[in-house]
Amino acid sequence: MIATIYGAACSSTRKARQWFAKNEIPYVERNILRDPLTVSELQGILRMTVEGTDEIISTRSKIYKDLNLNLDDLSLQVLLEIIHNYPRLLRSPIIIDEKRLQVGYHEDDIRQFLPRKTREYQWLKWRVNNLRLIEG
After folding, report:
1. Which position among 10, 21, 33, 67 bears the catalytic label?
2. pLDDT at 55
3. Which pLDDT tens digit goes with each residue over 30-89?
4. CA-CA distance, 58 to 79, in Å (whole number)?
5. 10: annotated active-site residue
6. Is 2 helix (H, G, I), strand (E, B) or coil?
7. Measured between alpha carbons, how far is 31 from 94 in angstroms, rounded to an integer?
8. Nearest Cα to 76, choosing from 35, 33, 37, 46?
9. What are the b/e assignments for 15-42, b being 16+ CB within 10 Å?
10. How far apart, in whole angstroms, are the C-alpha atoms of residue 45 and residue 80?
């Protein structure tokens, strides 16, 4: 499975990219400022969210404040078109593969993109190391 990292040039996107490279997980990256997500792509991302648009929109961003948006007054279609036109409204990065979605870089949560066998191996290794500390 190849993950896609949608993001702007920011430290969180850079950290995500470095984490994928360090863990040798294949990924593609797309700069959403140079190549904004289409309305259709945004709909696909929203289908994977738990909290809908609240999960992907950066309400602390300057553009959000400048546009003075009231999300409750907008239809979904209009909101997606606004996001397409103003990609800085999106939190960065948005990382997806066929089954998983992560918004923002969170060191613990990003581990979900590790293959299951790798996660199991790391868990066993952690347990062995911690048992030695307890016994010693």
Report:
1. 10
2. 95
3. 999 999 999 999 999 999 999 999 999 999 999 999 999 888 899 999 999 999 999 999
4. 13
5. yes
6. coil
7. 11
8. 46
9. ebbebbeeeebebeebebeeebbeeebb
10. 11
